[in-house]
Write a sequence for this structure.
């Protein structure tokens, strides 16, 4: 590089011949002097003419006009001199400010005439070369027609105070920015955004390459490619017959010596640009295209391997070694670095080398410590005879495979959730029949009877089974939530005694609340279950004792945030943190802890449903749950629960609890149409309602119920129907029946959650929901409330 010399302000002067933003302009000083000269000349002419006439009034007028023109000239020159003094001060200040800026910087006037340029700008021009008088001339070597770009940017600066534009040229990518720094002065900066692997990096390599824009326009061709095809083309379709181009495939290129088969390696750049490298596909093409040796493509930004048909890696470039995180030594085999075909890699290499394989790309993963790296490998045969080998083009697809794994995990969780919901529905039907018939037996036995205690045991175990089913529904997010406005301070205070009993004596439980904690809307019972599950897990992580902290605080998110592939919307949240000092969770297991039946505990110590249940409850509440853990330090579970923005609700009065074992507490009057496809549930419900005095009509399907209602003489006061049935479901047949019997009231029962069909229920007037499993008292009390 040539040495640079100091350039004073005198080195750049305003000339009489300048070039403006439109291509031709006039210097400001020349224009002002010309105008002043014309005004002065007019004043002198006026004074001279005053001596040629004898009319006193005309003489006086000419003299006054001449004096005024001369005074105007002097005033114009004085203002110009003052302006030049201020501009000189501005130029000196800017020159000192930008002189040591590593980015080429220029100060121009409104006509584009250079006033100041810094050392970096002078070095860019070659140091000793004369500096052009205009910015257009200074940038003419960089890109064609700079005048249009400069005019556009200067207009933007005059309107907004500044502007910038990214420009892709044959020499790389640049950013030209401008700021207005005075009434008629503009500061320009030219930043080189070309990365270290741009076009200039391969100009001296001899490897043919080009840069293409997103529309297929060829922005740049290096000298090797121009020699190869004998011309400079303007679009990709002039070189390739098949578009779009795919990295790793062989394409035929028409060269000066005839068609040549070339292997393409494509690197995506910013702005939709692509750098396309042409590698020889065989020995003949190598001779014609005169490509570089493997040493010459060491810096090529495409991972490449030269692989023998027997599996040994013969050569590699830096990008391939960096991608595989390995120093490839002599004797290293491809199977030592990559795996995942489901068969020996050597078989694949031999098939492609012999021409029997399709050559389709394969997705492989790294071995040993690099199993989280996924690579797409495309093989292309090269060479002949004893020199036959394969060129492997690698493409890093780790992010793509990670996204695919997340999608598969999501699909798996959804499938398990549907299975859990279906199993829970069937269990609820069975538990309804078991607990219902148990209630019927309890009606005929007093507490002193010998069988009474056995019946109570059956009833209690049925309730425990119902609780387990509730966990399955919570995981599948299909449990029945009873949302209410909850103050977490009160909820956790009520739980403190139970939590202290759960953690034991060796673990200390600490609660720390925000004094101004906002209320949330959630199912209090389910939320307590979440806190208990997290605290129990924290206790189990500290077998030697320690401290568990439960902290709450308010949080306002001004904008959405992304975390663990979840997007948390902006808004107000209540944060709940459960912090322990346990052994922590290894990074490879964190992604699995919310899966159902996944547990790190010993057999018999955990079911693997605790965290999956907590996840389901939190998500159904509209919140988020995250985990941060460090092995040997501890774990933090963080819950984001949305703040309740609805007005305070007046709690509805709850119906009195009715003792099951006391017979004939309720006596009803009315006709009930019971539609239930499960025979045991139908038998229990019909007996329970008849015991309370109701007339019960039974149907095992929706179609049978509609056939019964076709009789206009039949009077029915209430429909009790299951929601999910073969054929027509509950809401469908009820809507049809209500067309002829609009005053009839409805009780829907289901083993699924209420919100599974809540939209349909809202369209049916005078309807309520009764979840399974329900007891005899719950059924009869619900029917009585509907008919009262």
């Amino acid at each position: 590089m040539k040495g640079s010399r100091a350039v004073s302000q005198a080195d750049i002067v305003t000339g009489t011949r300048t070039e403006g933003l439109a291509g031709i302009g006039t210097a400001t000083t020349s224009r002002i002097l010309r105008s002043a000269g014309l005004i002065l000349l007019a004043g002198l002419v006026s004074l001279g003419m005053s001596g040629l006439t004898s009319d006193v009034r005309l003489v006086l007028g000419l003299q006054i006009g001449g004096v005024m023109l001369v005074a105007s000239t002097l005033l114009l020159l004085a203002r110009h001199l003052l302006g030049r003094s201020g501009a000189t001060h501005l130029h000196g200040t800017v020159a000192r400010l930008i002189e040591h800026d590593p980015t080429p910087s220029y100060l121009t006037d409104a006509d584009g005439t250079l006033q100041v340029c810094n050392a970096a700008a002078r070095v860019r021009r070659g140091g000793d070369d004369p500096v052009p008088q205009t910015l257009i001339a200074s940038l003419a070597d960089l890109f064609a027609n700079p005048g249009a770009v400069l005019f556009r940017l200067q207009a933007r600066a005059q309107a907004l105070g500044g502007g910038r534009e990214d420009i892709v040229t044959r020499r790389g990518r640049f950013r030209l920015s401008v700021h207005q720094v005075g009434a008629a002065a503009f500061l320009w900066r030219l930043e080189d955004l070309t990365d270290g692997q741009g076009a200039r990096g391969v100009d001296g390599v001899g490897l043919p390459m080009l840069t293409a824009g997103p529309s297929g326009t060829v922005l740049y061709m290096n000298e090797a490619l121009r020699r190869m095809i004998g011309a400079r083309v303007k679009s990709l379709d002039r070189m390739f017959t098949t578009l779009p181009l795919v990295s790793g495939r062989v394409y035929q290129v028409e060269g000066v010596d005839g068609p040549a088969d070339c292997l393409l390696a494509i690197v995506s750049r910013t702005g939709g640009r692509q750098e396309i490298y042409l590698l020889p596909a065989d020995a003949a093409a190598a001779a014609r295209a005169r490509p570089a040796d493997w040493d010459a493509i060491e810096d090529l930004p495409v991972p490449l391997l030269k692989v023998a048909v027997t599996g040994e890696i013969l050569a590699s470039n830096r990008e391939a070694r960096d991608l595989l995180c390995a120093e490839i030594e002599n004797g290293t085999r491809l199977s030592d670095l990559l795996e995942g075909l489901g068969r020996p890699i050597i078989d694949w290499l031999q098939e492609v080398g012999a021409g029997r394989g399709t050559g389709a790309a394969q997705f492989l993963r790294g071995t040993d410590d690099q199993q989280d790296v996924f690579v797409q490998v495309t093989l292309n045969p090269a060479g002949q005879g004893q020199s036959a080998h394969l060129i492997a083009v690698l493409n890093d697809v780790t992010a793509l495979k990670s996204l695919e794994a997340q999608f598969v995990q999501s699909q798996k969780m959804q499938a398990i959730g549907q299975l859990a919901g279906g199993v829970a529905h069937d269990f609820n039907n069975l538990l309804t029949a078991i607990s219902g018939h148990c209630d019927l037996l309890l009606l005929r036995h007093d507490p002193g009877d010998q069988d009474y205690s056995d019946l109570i045991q059956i009833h209690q175990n049925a309730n425990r089974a119902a609780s387990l089913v509730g966990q399955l529904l919570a995981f599948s997010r299909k449990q029945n939530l009873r949302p209410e406005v909850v103050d977490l301070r009160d909820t956790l205070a009520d739980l403190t005694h139970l939590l202290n009993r759960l953690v034991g004596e060796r673990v200390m439980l600490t609660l720390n609340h925000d004094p101004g904690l906002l209320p949330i809307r959630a199912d209090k019972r389910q939320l307590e279950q979440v806190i208990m599950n997290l605290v129990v897990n924290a206790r189990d992580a500290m077998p030697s004792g320690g401290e568990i902290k439960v902290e709450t605080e308010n949080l306002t998110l001004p904008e959405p945030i992304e975390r663990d592939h979840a997007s948390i919307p902006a808004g107000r949240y209540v944060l709940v943190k459960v912090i322990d000092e346990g052994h922590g969770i290894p990074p490879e297991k964190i992604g699995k802890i919310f899966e159902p039946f996944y547990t790190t505990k010993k057999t018999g110590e955990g079911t693997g449903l605790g965290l999956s249940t907590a996840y389901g409850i939190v998500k159904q509440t509209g919140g988020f749950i995250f985990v941060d853990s460090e092995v040997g330090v501890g774990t933090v579970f963080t819950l984001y629960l949305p703040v309740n923005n609805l007005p305070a609700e007046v709690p509805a009065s709850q119906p009195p609890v009715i003792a099951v074992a006391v017979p004939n507490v309720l006596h009803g009057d009315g006709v009930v149409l019971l539609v239930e496809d499960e025979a045991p549930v139908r038998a229990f419900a019909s007996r329970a309602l008849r015991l309370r005095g109701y007339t019960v009509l039974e149907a095992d399907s929706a179609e049978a119920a509609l056939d019964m209602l076709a009789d206009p003489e039949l009077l029915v006061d209430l429909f009790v129907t299951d929601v999910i049935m073969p054929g027509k479901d509950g809401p469908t047949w009820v809507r049809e029946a209500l067309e002829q019997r609009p005053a009839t009231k409805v009780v829907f029962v289901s083993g699924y959650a209420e919100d599974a069909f809540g939209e349909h229920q809202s369209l049916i007037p005078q309807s309520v929901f009764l979840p399974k499993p329900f007891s005899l008292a719950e059924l009869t009390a619900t029917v009585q409330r509907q008919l009262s």
User: Anything to note?
Assistant: The longest helix spans residues 398-443. The mean pLDDT is 76. The longest strand covers residues 546-557.
